[in-house]
Design a protein that fits this description.
- By secondary structure, the protein is α+β, with helices and mostly antiparallel strands.
- It is built from 2 helices and 3 strands.
- The protein folds into 2 domains: 33 residues; 68 residues, OB fold (Dihydrolipoamide Acetyltransferase, E2P), CATH 2.40.50.40.
- It has a 3-stranded antiparallel sheet with strand order 1-2-3, covered by helices on one side.
- The C terminus is likely disordered.
Amino acid sequence: MKTLCFTLGLLLLTACCCNTMPIAVQVSNASGNCCGRLYQGMIPLKFVTSITKTHSSCQQQAFIVQTEKGRKICYRQTFKWALHVYKQLHNRNSQRHKVIL
């Protein structure tokens, strides 16, 4: 009887762990785009190919700027240059969608 209870308990514990594991993997992948060091210099806009916000689970909310050479640079979300670039690129993209539609 004890062996049966132990086996059922172990099976239940395994089922619970397997059920929550995909959620933990999703969270760790989502937070993979977080920034450690923040850059304070400005780069020419012509070298910027994209700019995105970090995931909400990151400790520091920042922008990730990708350059033509594939380099990723992090800026604070309060940094005026990064805010300007973010608004400018997203306005340009939304205008392209309006022309296509």
